[in-house]
UniProtKB/TrEMBL annotation:
This is Galactose mutarotase. The lineage of its organism: Bacteria, Bacillati, Actinomycetota, Actinomycetes, Micrococcales. Pfam families: Aldose_epim. InterPro entries: Aldose_1/G6P_1-epimerase, Gal_mutarotase_sf_dom, GH-type_carb-bd.
Amino acid sequence: MPSSTSQPQTPDHVTLRAGRYTATTTAAGGALASLRHDDRDLVLPSGGQLGRPAFEGAICAPWPNRVVDGRWEHDGQQHELAITEPDRGHALHGFVHDQRWNLLESTATTARWGLDTQPQPGYPWALTLATAYELDAEGGLTWQVTAQQRPIETGPAGPAPYGVTVHPYFVAGEGPAQDWTLELPAESVLTVDERLVPQDLVPVGEASLDLRGGRMLGEQQIDHAFGGLTERVARLTTPAGSGVEVTWSADHRWVQIFTAQWDARRPRHAVALEPMTCPPDAFNSGTDLIMLTEEPVTVGWQVRAL
């Protein structure tokens, strides 16, 4: 195993190389800025700055997706988060994506970034997080996030509610995303209203969102959380057969699919696949929340080229 390299001052980026893969990770949110196989992007590259409006490559914690209206209750205490999705009025994707992480160690094929969070409005716990990237010539990119509560004198007693996802926009290959096929073995999907507030968990066939056998995306716009996962894998492929495969650890019972139609005048060119440990608005529903103590909790994802 290569020895770690001490970093007296955290750089902005660390680039990893293994075989035909190259990945760039960044101090801005501890995020994945790029992932390539040969000369092909597997994720939509980002500049690696703070404040990425589309959350490209971000780590979304201590909650993924939305807390509706930014309000939630825990142990009889009302909490109010900053509204970070003003057009819909929700608190979106946590807050660690918009903080600078510190490089803990790196080698030619690995990087590990860390962050100690402070209590935030609406989230009075302090956390310690680390994200680890490892690039392998055969298996592609393995990406893990470890979190634990860091007790502080002024913090609340008891475990900290927690959820996490990562937010790459995957690129199958040439051509518009409308021509790509997405395969996700999920039996149910969470319907939403016009503000993307969760409504009902229904069979995928009832919602016309059955991706189990693979489905060409076409013009359908998707921004939904899928559950009832029978396997922990998703594949995005072009008609020519190139593509990307994403797998995840057992802690993830949900996957958000976002077909990324930012501008109706342009073809879609990437699809966000976000394996989540909990569904949208889990701080209110309590569904699949992780309760963090001082014991570390690690979850992970793997990405490889097809």
